[in-house]
Amino acid sequence: MDKKTSRIRRSRKTRAKIRELGVDRLTIFRTPRHTYAQIISGETGKVLATASTLHKDLKSDVKYTGNVEAAVAVGKAIAEKAKAAGIESVAFDRSGYKYHGRVKALADSARENGLKF
Description:
- The protein has about 120 residues and is an alpha+beta fold.
- It has one domain (about 5-110): Nucleotidyltransferase, domain 5 (2-Layer Sandwich), CATH 3.30.420.100.
- It is built from four helices and four strands; from the N terminus they run αβββααβα.
- The chain has helices spanning about 5-20, 55-60, 70-85, 100-110; strands spanning about 25-30, 35-40, 45-50, 90-95.
- Helix 3 (about 70-85) packs parallel to helix 4 (about 100-110).
- The mean pLDDT is about 95.
């Protein structure tokens, strides 16, 4: 099994459990250049809020979009958009990535800005 297949396999377990709970989830995806975050409804499966380093306001704030500093900015932005949409608590879906580096920075930033998970 290669690295990507292993990650996808790990993410399937997490998503199955979150689906069983039926709560909104904060999903992240990362590439070497960008970090993306979405809040997906547990009931309907629709996207309620998004933030990424591709958005113009975030892209202009950070020097490089593929590092921890950019992930912190995305975490702050997703927490603010969640509050605006009336979402206070979510389940954290790290998409099979290790809770380390950019993933941890995004999660910590979202927590600091009022999102509970």
